[in-house]
Amino acid sequence: MTAPEQPYPSRAATFAAFGEHVSRGKTAMFEKYGVDVVMGERHGACFHDAYDGRRLFNCHSNGGVFNLGHRHPAVLAALRQALDTLDIGNHHLVSGMRARLAERLVATTKGRLPGVVFAVAGGEAIDLAIKVARAATKRRGVVSASGGYHGHTGLALAAGDAKYREPFFSSAAEFTQVPFNDVDALARVVNDGTAAVLLETIPATLGMPIPEPGYLKAVGVLCQTRGAKLILDEVQTGLGRTGTLWAHEADEVAPDAIVTGKGLSGGLYPIAATLLSRELHAVFDEDPFRHISTFGGAELGCAAALAVLDVVEAPAFLPRVCALGERFAHGLAGAPFELRRRGMFMGLKFPFEDAGLMGAKLLIDAGIFAVWANNDTSVVQFLPPLVCTDAEADEIVGIVRKVFG
Ligand SMILES: Cc1ncc(COP(=O)(O)O)c(C=O)c1O
After folding, report:
1. Mean pLDDT across the chain, nearest whole number?
2. What are the structural domains of the chain?
3. Are the beta carbons of 271 and 261 closer than 8 angstroms?
4. Strand ranges for 77-121 from DSSP E
5. Which residue's CA lies nearest to atom 3 of ligand 1?
6. β-pairing, 141-145 with 175-178?
7. Which pLDDT does position 1 carry in this prediction?
8. CA–CA separation, 344 vs 329, rounded Å?
9. Is the C-beta atom of 150 inside 6 A of ligand 1?
10. Helix (H, G, I), strand (E, B) or coil at 271
11. What whole-number distance in Å separates Cα of residue 330 and Cα of residue 168?
C-alpha cells in the first residue's frame, strides 16, 4: 500500500492553502480543537495521517460511504476495468449500465419500487423524490422530522433543520417539521395538502434515535389514508448498515420512494438513486426530460455500484453485519453511555449536551475517527466499517472503553 503523494510539503502548508481557498471556517475549527488530521494512505477499516502516518480506525465511515472500508478490492477492480472502456456515458441515451444497476436496485425491493432515477448525490436524489411526490399528488406540502437531515440542495434543505436553511432563506410555508417517533404530531399536520412525508429511517444527524416499534408502520398507514407519499431517506441507513439491506425492512412499512447514496459506490465514484413506485415513476412518462442530471447514473459509477451490490448481497454479508453489531454491543456493555444501535448503525448517547463533541475529539486522539451528531451534540455517531475483522472490532472496542473508562 503506497501513500498518495501530497500536493503540499507540510501539514501547515496544507492547512494554510485549504483555509485560504476552501474553508477558513473548517481550518479555524480544527485548529481550535487541536484536530490536525489530513487523510493519507487508506485501506480497509483504517486510514493514516498524510504527514506523520498515525493510524485511525474510520468509525465515521463518512456516514456510510465507507461501509465496505476504504478502497474495497472488488469495487476497485470493477472501476479499474470500467475505466478501460467507459466514461460517464450520455444521459440522453439509453444505457445498458444504467438499466442493469436500476434492475438490481429494483430487485432489492422485490419489485415493489420498479422505477429508478439516478443522481450524483443524496441531496439531489431527495429533491427528485419530493418533486415527483408533488407532481403525482398535485399537492405542495412536505412534512419531515425536526432535526432531520437530507442534504443541502433546494428541497432537501427546506426539509432539514433550521440551522442549515435559515441562513439561506430557504424556509417555505409548505415545509413542516414534527418530532421523530411521534405519530400523533404527524397526524396533526398531514392533510389533503401534503404531498410527502420525508423521514430518515433512523435520523443520523439527530443522534440515531431508533424508531419505536410500530412507529414507521403507523406513518405508512397515515400516509396511505391521507393520500401523501412516504419517502424514506436511506442514504445513511441503507445497503446493509443496519443488518437488513434497507433499514425499514425491520419496520414493516412499504414506502413510495427510497433514497440511497453514500455507500452505493464504495466511496470510489459519486452516485445516488431514488427508487420509485410505478405511480411516482410515471411522472416522467409524458416528458422524460422534465428532470435531467448530466452526471447522475454515470456509467463508471454504475460499474462501481454493481460491484457494491455484489458484495452486500452475498449470502454471508448481512448475517456478518448482525454478528458484528452484537460483538460491539457485547464489548461496549456497561460503558458510560447509552448505545443506540440497529445492526452496525450506532450512536453513543451521553447524558449531556456537547459530550458527543468532546467524545469525538477524545476518540480521534486515541486513534478512532468519529464525529458527533450535529443536531444532538450529546451523541457520537459510531459507524465502523462493515468489513471489520473480529480483531479490529475488539481493538476498536478496547480503545472506546479505555477513552471513556
Ligand atoms: C440521511 C442523509 N440524507 C441525505 C444526505 C445528503 O447526501 P449528499 O451529501 O450526498 O447530498 C445525507 C448526507 O450526509 C444524509 O446523511
Report:
1. 97
2. 11-59+315-404 (3.90.1150.10), 73-312 (3.40.640.10)
3. yes
4. 115-119
5. 150
6. parallel
7. 65
8. 9
9. yes
10. coil
11. 44
Average pLDDT score over residue span 155-173:
92
Question: What integer pLDDT is reported at residue 2 of this predicted model?
Answer: 77
Task: Find where cell 425499514 sits.
Answer: 248
- Cα–Cα distances (Å) from 190 to 223, 228, 251, 277, 388, in that order, read 8, 8, 20, 20, 42
pLDDT at 3 (0 to 100): 86
Show the beta-strand stretches assigned E in 174-333. Answer: 175-178, 194-200, 229-233, 257-260, 272-276
C-alpha cell belonging to residue 229: 407519499
Cα→Cα distances 319→69, 244, 396, Å: 18, 9, 20
Please give the helix or strand (H or E) that residue 95 lies within, else none.
none
Would you state the cell numbers that stand for residue 201, as one nine-digit string?
Answer: 429511517
Q: Indicate if the pLDDT at residue 93 is higher than 70.
A: yes
Letter for the amino acid at 214?
Answer: G
Q: Give mean pLDDT, residues 190-212.
A: 98
CA of 231 to the centre of ligand 1 (A): 14
- 220 in ligand 1 pocket by Cβ < 6 Å? no
- Main-chain phi, psi angles of 178, to 5 degrees: -135, 160
Is 238 near ligand 1, meaning CB less than 6 Å away?
no
Distance between start and end Cα atoms, the chain: 34
